[in-house]
Automatic annotation (TrEMBL):
<dbReference type="Pfam" id="PF14821">
    <property type="entry name" value="Thr_synth_N"/>
</dbReference>
<protein>
    <recommendedName>
        <fullName>Threonine synthase</fullName>
        <ecNumber>4.2.3.1</ecNumber>
    </recommendedName>
</protein>
<dbReference type="GO" id="GO:0004795">
    <property type="term" value="F:threonine synthase activity"/>
</dbReference>
<comment type="similarity">
    <text>Belongs to the threonine synthase family.</text>
</comment>
<dbReference type="InterPro" id="IPR037158">
    <property type="entry name" value="Thr_synth_N_sf"/>
</dbReference>
<dbReference type="InterPro" id="IPR029144">
    <property type="entry name" value="Thr_synth_N"/>
</dbReference>
<dbReference type="Pfam" id="PF00291">
    <property type="entry name" value="PALP"/>
</dbReference>
<feature type="domain" description="Threonine synthase N-terminal">
    <location>
        <begin position="4"/>
        <end position="82"/>
    </location>
</feature>
<feature type="modified residue" description="N6-(pyridoxal phosphate)lysine">
    <location>
        <position position="114"/>
    </location>
</feature>
<dbReference type="GO" id="GO:0009088">
    <property type="term" value="P:threonine biosynthetic process"/>
</dbReference>
<keyword id="KW-0663">Pyridoxal phosphate</keyword>
<dbReference type="InterPro" id="IPR036052">
    <property type="entry name" value="TrpB-like_PALP_sf"/>
</dbReference>
<dbReference type="InterPro" id="IPR001926">
    <property type="entry name" value="TrpB-like_PALP"/>
</dbReference>
<dbReference type="InterPro" id="IPR004450">
    <property type="entry name" value="Thr_synthase-like"/>
</dbReference>
<dbReference type="GO" id="GO:0005737">
    <property type="term" value="C:cytoplasm"/>
</dbReference>
<feature type="domain" description="Tryptophan synthase beta chain-like PALP">
    <location>
        <begin position="103"/>
        <end position="417"/>
    </location>
</feature>
Amino acid sequence: MNTFHSTRSNDQMVTAKQAIRTGIAYDGGLFVNDDLGTANGPHIDIAGLMQSSYQDIAYSVLKALLPDFSEHELRECIEQAYGDQWDDTHITPLKPLGDDWILELFHGPTSAFKDVALQILPRFMARTANTPDVPEQTAHTEERIMILTATSGDTGKAALAGFADAPGTGITVFYPEGKVSQIQQLQMTTQQGNNVHVYAVRGNFDDAQSAVKRIFADHEFANTLQDDAHVALSSANSINVGRLVPQVVYYFAAYAQLVQRGAITLGDPVEFVVPTGNFGNILAGYYAKLLGLPVAHLTVASDKNNVLVDFLNTGVYDRNRPFYQTTSPSMDILISSNLERMLYYFSNKDEALVAKLMESLSQDGTYQIPEDMLKRIQTIFSADWANEDEVNEAIASCFASTGEVIDPHTACGYTVLQRMPQRENVAARILLATASPYKFPRVVNQALGFDHTGSDFACMDVLSQQTGTQAPAALRGLEHAHERFTEVIDIAQMQDVVRRAAFTL
Ligand SMILES: *Cc1c(COP(=O)(O)O)cnc(C)c1O
């Protein structure tokens, strides 16, 4: 059952539960599973899943990738995570988009795709209690987990919604004061739950993020919390195996829906176009391929922060470049953490090479992969990006030609899809839609030529009237929701509020 180890070394093997509980490996690497993609590794019989529900597909995928969870545990997690907090019974419904397809990942409680993973991660976490962090340690039976997150918008709310009142856990979220949208801020400050804490921080996102990293790195602080409060700090970061694995499910669910609609025949190869930032969304598609799904091609769609596009075209990753704030904030990223897992698999599982590349990234902000490795990656992955004018044009032209209203993240993908050559061997192309357009009503209205001068809520109403679509009730209802968290703190106070929160857990 000890099937996971670090991308940077293989001297310490852990179970899936241990990997989820600790999040990141002791040497800073990401947990990976060596079996994946090998003849003896996990494999999914897709023929048996084509008429299955999302929940049954989820069970097959999670069982294959998290073998030490029992059937009962997985079924319980799935039932609780993918229930009626989703406003579509398909969970991730597939719709036609001209000659192509669009898979909507935003029907969860916070209207963004991070719900797919963050609705289930807390349920996994609750079932990792009594699991020692490393094999040779004994378990702290009463230990509870405090999740710390600095957020620039979407992740904070999705994490709050997932961890609210989750047994054995608490969550503290920090967002930069005045730097998130009105809707994003209200989504967080109105969060219900007895174990949640939300603070606005004076500073920008990087300041808050760096402070959270310092808190995690403070071993003395960790020991105090451990000894006196029986609380361990953890993160709900997208590098956690427990966030990656649930995302593999929607690739299978998309394929099953294509077969059910008669759009493809079982076995036909398909291509996905994936709005990507931290590389988690698209890496899950590669995992689906390694499990046996006929994925012919995976295309990264980036915004103006196009570091991944350059990497996939040249083999050089270089974060030494300007950072742009765009209308697709969740893809404004210069370090794509989950890329490390792809490097591991495409280097033929060469931990030493991955460690060297990551050292180079941390020292110099750049690395270059060997030519033959790049060639192998390019047989499956390609990449393209959209600037902000193209994003606006994509929102407008998508609505004009298909009737679908898309958000700015999805619009990066739409631009890339339209520009892409039609590949010979691909039977269907699927664009992943990662956020509801109602999370970004001002940008969307502007692109569509509608009035965008009022509040975010006025913009929602205009968008609804003009397009005949409906705002998700949870978003529209924020206008009159009670704000629970209004405290603004300095960076220097962050550790103190974490301490306070830990002792009340
Ligand atoms: C997080 C996010 C993405 C990018 O996903 P990654 O896993 O970082 O690749 C794209 N769109 C939206 C709306 C997101 O919230």
